Amino acid sequence: MVNEPRLSAGVIVVRPEQARHLYLLLRAYRNWDFPKGLLEPGESPLQAAVREVEEETTLRDLDFRWGMDYRETPPYAGKKIARYYLAESRAGAVDLPVSPEIGMPEHHEYRWLPYRDARELLVDRLQAILDWAEDKITNA
After folding, report:
1. How many domains does the chain have?
2. What are the backbone angles phi and psi of residue 19, rounded to the nearest 5°?
3. Residue 1: is its pLDDT beyond 70?
4. What are phi and psi of 117, to 5 degrees?
5. What is the pTM of this model?
6. Is residue 1 part of a domain?
7. What residues does 93 pair with on adjacent strands?
8. Which terminal CB of the chain, N or C, has fewer other CB atoms within 10 Å?
9. Once rounded to an integer, what is the mean pLDDT over residues 61-86?
10. Which of 135, 129, 136, 133 has its CA nearest to residue 8?
11. Is 11 among the domain residues?
């Protein structure tokens, strides 16, 4: 249906550093977000999320150590809903490869940030997602 929300899926990627976790944020223009994108035909949300992380950052071997739970944003920007899973990556090196569709990287910058710094860069709907992830990690 035309009026149904469009689902995108992504992953809140974290990596351990000393006694804390750092969150991976990607910047496109002035907007910070987690790696995510629209589902392709026949793809599950989790498959799409893992594919998007690899396409946008080259990170592989994600460890979904907190399970397959997810959180979704309220509808935004043309009835889009973003679903986020939580996974750990031991890799710190991120590459922002050129997207074949647009001929340049989808993102301008990436940062690995502690919770409070990451939260300051995110809009409200994503702060709630980050809060959920921090709670899962802290209470695991």
Report:
1. 1
2. -100, 20
3. no
4. -65, -40
5. 0.93
6. no
7. none
8. N
9. 94
10. 129
11. yes
